[in-house]
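haha ok so turns out i had the wrong file open the whole time. this is the CORRECT one, sorry everyone. sequence first:
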Amino acid sequence: MSDNVLINRVLSIFKDIDKIFVFGAGNYGKDLEIILNKYELFDKYIDNDIEKQRNGFMNEKVISLKEYLLTKKKKYIVIAASYENIINISEQLQNNGLILYEDYCTMDYYLKKIFPIILYYKYNKLYTNLAQITLTERCTLKCKKCAHACWNVSSNMQDMPFETAKESADYFFSKYDFVNEFVLIGGEPFLYKYLKDIIQYIGEKYRDKMNIFSITTNGTIIPNVEIISLFNQFNMTLRVSDYSQTLPYLTEKYRKLYDKFKNNDVRVWETNNKDAWFDYGFGEFDRHNDIQSLKKAFSECSTECREVRGNKYYYCVMARTVSDNMNLNLGQDDYIDLNNVKDKRELLQFELGNIDKGYLEMCNYCRGAEAKKYLIPAAEQRSKNE
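then structure:
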């Protein structure tokens, strides 16, 4: 579906819909409610749990699907649940005559494809689901199939200067009104010399423009109390890529990390890649510049992993990091210059994947969405000879 067709379809479906029902009164639903309430788009929760229907959730009313179906006004459901529950809820909705995308969709699809369009056309606001600043390419591990190719980065490589990190946040938030999650990543971000300063800077200036403010770590470094206090101050989330199943020697390190953060009331999320990673094929896969294949791969991938680097806003963080870290010198122009953006619609089109070429140069060497078919052990380490 082309971007203009998608826009027209969304505007048609939501022409008379001013509120969203969230199916799933839990952690996913709570995050979605926060975003929706910022723009007065939340109506009620739907949940199959009778206890929640009786007592409510987060001081909000919870109704059954039967009650929802009895309401007369035009309405729309967004499923906010785990993958397994999404399948069950979707089947439940279909059995009651509801149609995917016309009457309901998943939280992931809504935030990526629908919400940015509604916010732009109804409120003249710009939204993206995920944006990141890569503070350092250095890492404490040397993973064979690192999706950012950090295995090829020396320990003495220069990190992003502090002024550039500040500039990155300033450029991004000068254009975007709200982001679901803003992430500080690496490499290993706890190696970054100015981490305390950049957390303080972004937290003080822009915390109200993001739902989740997070750092993603491999858990090999336990930060000091000063950093943890900033997590509390700015209500931050720690995302942990737990590789203890591949690297058992890290088990005790993770236990200490979890204890330290959870005991300080910091929200900790473990990523779902403990056992296996997708193999994107970097360094061995090649589409041989087949334009049709490149455009198809880009369209099917639809990555949400944006990266801001100074005034440069990259559609895919992996495309940029892998090219730089493997010295491929590809995709040097595969970004949008935030300094030159005059019309918000230009960035909306970019968010929806409207790229001039129809693909990124690095798509030539990436399996994209097909990578999920190629599973490999997570975080296998390179030997000293590799």
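The mean pLDDT is 95.
again sry for the mixup
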